[in-house]
Amino acid sequence: MAIVGRKFPDLNVNAMNEMGDTFQINVLEEAKNNNKKVLLFWYPKDFTFVCPTELHAFQEALGEFEKRNTLVIGASCDTAEVHFAWLNTAKDDGGIEGVTYPLIADSNRNLSTMLDILDADEEYNDDLEGYLLKGDNVSFRATYLIDEEGTVFHEGVNHMPVGRNVNEFLRMIDAYTHVQKNGEVCPANWEEGKDAMKADRLATAAYLSQN
Fold it and tell me: Do 35 and 149 form a contact (C-beta atoms < 8 A)?
């Protein structure tokens, strides 16, 4: 179920930082209490293949997100202890050493279930007379952009093999910030410095005539 335009779920979950500390984090409160946007990205599993490339890519762009008043938070269904082990594994060995943003450890799957992003379906088994799970019961590559009020202004879900383009999230943050500040809408392929437009018929016609 899509939650764009709605508040992100108000839920405390476990997380791990680069120092090895486990703590509680609430994504909604992080946005509202800090008056910042939040980029929350989910990935399937620690110690896998596409996942470390994404975590390092978000780390490399962390300064750009900070310039945009945006917090970055990673998340998976691994435990905090597994996160810590991966954080202590060198990049050259497939690890994420050097990642500094918090990682949610949704091992009880409360938040990922609420967001409906798990690779899991129940199937009744006649022989066992009960339901079995199909799928790995881990999250897809879901991404949420949340504004300073805790409202989701973007969500997207990739299948397991397809990594994300970090620059696209920077572009979307720029576009949404432009909307917030100027009351204009951003057309297709809009980037910072390009023309936006008023949300009316005449402005759309004028924009199309010039582009």
Answer: no
**Chain center to CA of 128:** 38
Hunting for tokens 């949300």 — which residue is that? Answer: 199
Our answer to whether residue 51 is catalytic in this structure is: yes
Kindly report the pTM of this predicted structure. 0.96
Residue keyed to tokens 């690779």: 119
User: Number of C-alpha atoms within 13 angstroms, CB side, residue 3?
Assistant: 21
Q: What pLDDT score does 103 carry?
A: 98
Q: 157: exposed, middle or buried (C-beta count within 10 Å: 0-12, 13-18, 19+)?
A: middle
Residue 74: partners with Cβ closer than 8 Å, 6 or more residues away:
40, 41, 42, 43, 55, 58, 99, 101, 102, 103, 104
Token couple for 172: 């979307």
Alpha-helical regions (H) of the chain: 27-34, 50-60, 62-67, 80-87, 110-115, 166-182, 201-210
25: which strand partners? 13
Residue 148 and residue 31 in contact, taking contact as beta carbons nearer than 8 Å = yes
Which of the following is catalytic: 25, 38, 51, 173? 51
For the segment 131-178, what is each residue's pLDDT rounded down to a tens digit?
Answer: 888 989 999 999 999 999 999 999 999 999 999 999 999 999 999 999
- Hey, which residues does 141 pair with through a beta bridge? 158
Backbone angles phi, psi at 185, to 5 degrees: -105, 155
